[in-house]
Model the fold of this input.
Amino acid sequence: MKPLLLFAVLACVSWSGLPQDSSKTQGDTINLNVANGSIQFPIVSDSILEYENFRKTIAVSKKNNNPKKLASAYVNLATWHENHTVLDSSIAYLKKAIAVYKNQGLNKELAETYLLLKANYGSTAEYDKASDAVYAALDLYEKMKDQRGIARCYTSIGDLFYYSDRYAEGAEYCKKAIAIQEQNGYEEDIPLSYRRLAENQLFLGNLEKSLQNMNKAINGYKKIGETGAPLLACYNGRGNIYKYLEEYDKAIADYNRCYEGAKKIGLEQYTVPPTANIGHVYLLQGNYAEALPYNLKAIEIMKRTGNTKNLWENYMHVSNIYRELGDYKNALDYHELYEQGHADYLTSITSRIESEAHVKYETAKKTIEIGAQKAKIDHQKKIQLLYISLAVLLAIILFGMFFTMKNIRKKRKALAAVNQELDAKNQQNELLLKEIHHRVKNNLEMVKSLIALQSAQLTDKASKEAMLASQNRVQSMGIIHQKLYQGTNLGSIEMKDYFINLSEGVLDTFNAEDKVKIECAMEELNLDVDTAVPIGLIVNELLTNALKYAFPKSSKGKINISLKEENNDLKLKVSDDGVGKTEGADPQGTGFGSQLIKLLTKQLNGTLYEEHQTGTSVFFTFKNYKTA
Done:
């Protein structure tokens, strides 16, 4: 089964803290102590002197008992390590500086160091720790009434929401930052806020607004004379916008500006985003042979420099390219790497969502018990480990089946004798696959129960609704696996029966069995799993929206679902006789459900439109689908 791909654009690596002079010839080396031992690092001569000076400053500051100068030297040494992509050492020195600043009560310096720590954790994809750091900085800046610091924190929070797929909230924080910065004339900070705003708007579907704001960021950097990494990051970001506007020539031109500028700076890790993105453009255009070397190069640089937060996305692209080129062995190898990396990414997302749910800063600051939080994270890691184990087991089975079929073709003369053995093996494999689907279904039920338990502890309405929506999405995928292990065909789902089960589950969630009736006006239709999963999630979102908004208070009504093949297209209709949509009314909810529906529709090469004459009717036409 293919995973749902809701993240298509590669995010930029950290673009802060560049060396003063990277044009010197390289040749010298220095031994650096890192978390896993000592490495010999090639660097320019001036950089060696800079490193030694920082070390000497630390020694002198300790000897002279000068804490403020000692902490400043720690920060400088951390920045030096970040520039040379030794991120674990950079984080270690920042923590030392934070300890000194806390002990001395130097709150302004402490807050600035927290923001540096947030950037480092962002580069290593440890977003839960990055979130803790930025909220600690915001607390200090608010106590000092430092408007510039508060605005910088808002921009950083907008960036974190971007990586949590909460684009609407991220955009709002960026707008709050821009308002403060423009009112107070903080011109050096404004371009970054516009860039973060544009990045969030890209995934809200506001492509034109996103492009306008990214151009404001570029013009702002040019106005203050910035020509280095911050400007290059904007070129990469604008290339992403052009890519989704399908203006591929402009996108590649901006990626090349970013790439050439990064080479001129002299730090190779900054060439990763444009390299990967050029490969992604060729992939979107179907030029698989041209795309492959770019994505492989991006993977090689990420692994060598240690900036691996987007590594799993590149594994996914390379797997898809090899599959399209017919190289199934490499496609399977890279898909396994993608599965492992994506599981780690999901663990990071889960940790960050839990942290933010407990630290709703705008409403209240809640105290988290460290022991209980650690137990939850450990439990989630065990669940993720189980998913990875199941995925590896399935991959091994499929790989064995592939070579079994290949050997059978070579031994057609002995077909009669081999068939009997093959039938027995197939029965075993079917039993194993059914068992796998059964276990996945049970694990999804466990995840659903964990979400329900977590939701019961929340008092914030928005958080509870988000948890409920997540619970319904997990339930939708769980029903798919239930149908697979209960049915006779392991590759298809009968959609009418699936919709009936899904409807019962959603009605039960909202306790609306006596209030709303859901009807499935359709013939039996078997769909391939890759088609059934996104359609199931779409219908789940529409049923959830209807039950939340179409039948207010105690009003009763009916929802109709139909799905059929017509003229080589797959037609889906979901309608209700509720209150409908008021013209000019503000959208309800966070908008994530609508964004999810649009992305899933695009995945199936589909279109949608709505009618609001009597209640609400949503019509879909899908081109890219498979029947069983």
In short: Residues 377-622 form a domain with the Heat Shock Protein 90 fold (CATH 3.30.565.10). DSSP finds 21 helices and nine strands in the chain. The two ends are 14 Å apart (CA to CA).
